[in-house]
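User: Can you help me understand a structure? I only have the sequence.
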Amino acid sequence: MQNSFAFLKKLYKKPKSDIQKTLAGMGVEWIKVVDPYNVKESLKTIREAYKSNYKGLKVIISDAECALESGRKIRKIKSEALSQNNRWVETKLGVDEDVCTGDHSCISYNGCPSLTVRNNPNPLKDDKIAWIDYSCIGCGLCSEISHVAKLCPSFYQVDRIINPTSYESFMFRVRNFVIDRLVN
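Assistant: Let's start by predicting it. Here is the structure, written out as tokens:
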């Protein structure tokens, strides 16, 4: 089983009430439904709403479960998978502290509670740097926002494999051997 955000989306159960029908019943005619984790689609819809000549209330519904709530569900599934010694891939995102300039534009565009600031480990730089803490569930939204807005190249993704296959273990040892030989 793999922990990817696509997997989290499969867990999402739509609410019983239909917001779109409720708004239409109240007379709202301009209604768009977007996936908030698809930044390009969301920005396109916001621009469409802004530029539209429609005179009246415009509603954009972001239809997805909170990533933190999905993370709570994933923890249970992960513990069950690991108790059965199943392979598990954890996707985590991070910020390269050597590349981060400390302008924090990534934080101003993002509401993720996992994206925060910390002191710069480089004593020659005064600015605090962006940092993704351990509550990150790997949805990738912070990274997608930073690249769509052309903000920062400092984001990176790491896939941590728990209970790897024998082939993956072998390749890990080969890579480490090659890297060790190149370094020494």
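Now, to help you interpret it: The two ends are 37 Å apart (CA to CA). The chain has a mean pLDDT of 81. Let me know which part you'd like to focus on.
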